[in-house]
Amino acid sequence: NAGVTQTPKFRVLKTGQSMTLLCAQDMNHEYMYWYRQDPGMGLRLIHYSVGEGTTAKGEVPDGYNVSRLKKQNFLLGLESAAPSQTSVYFCASSSIRQPQHFGDGTRLSIL
Amino acid sequence: AQKITQTQPGMFVQEKEAVTLDCTYDTSDPSYGLFWYKQPSSGEMIFLIYQGSYDQQNATEGRYSLNFQKARKSANLVISASQLGDSAMYFCAMREGRYTGNQFYFGTGTSLTVIP
Question: Which of B4, B31, B45 to mutate to test the interface with A (most CBs of A within 10 A)?
C-alpha cells in the first residue's frame, strides 16, 4: 500500500552540486508530476509526464531536468544546484480525471 | 492571469463552528475538475473533495462540502463542525480538460487555525 514514494526525504547540497530525486508509484498511473513548494507560493509545477517516455515543462522548469524511462518512476534532476532551488519538492501521480496522489515530500537545502 | 485564487491567507474558526474557505478559478475549458487538499503541519498533501464541471450537485464528503457556483467561477470549501485537527493549510486546485496533459493548478493556500 505504498502509493507514491519519494527518496530521499531530506538532503543538503552545496551550490553547484548535482543530485537526482526519485519518485516511484505503484498505482499504474499514467500521469506524474514534480512540484516545488515555497512559503506563500503554493505548489508550482516544475515538469510533468503524461506517460512512459514523455515529459513536458511546467510553470518553473529552469534548472531542472526529468526523465520517465519506466511508467512507475519519475526522476527529477538538478544539474548544478543553486540556493534558489532550496525548497520542498513533491511528486504526485494520477490517472485521467482523478485526484493526484502525493508523496511525502523531499526537503532540499542548498548552501 | 492566475488560474486559482485563494484570497484568505489565514483564517480562524472556533471549534465546532463552520468555516468557508474561498476559491475562485479561471478557465475557458468547459471540462475541468476542482479539488481541495489539506496539508497539516506534518507536510503531507491529503485529498479532501472533488467537483467536476458538469456535476449538477455540490460535492460532499463527510464534514466537507464544496459550494460550487459555476457562473461565478467559485469553488468554496465548507468545513462543518470544525475540529482541532482541521488546523492546517488548505489548497484549492483545478485540473483542466484532458487535452492539457491533465495539468493541475494550485492556489497559494489558506492557513486555517481552529481555536478551542
Answer: B45
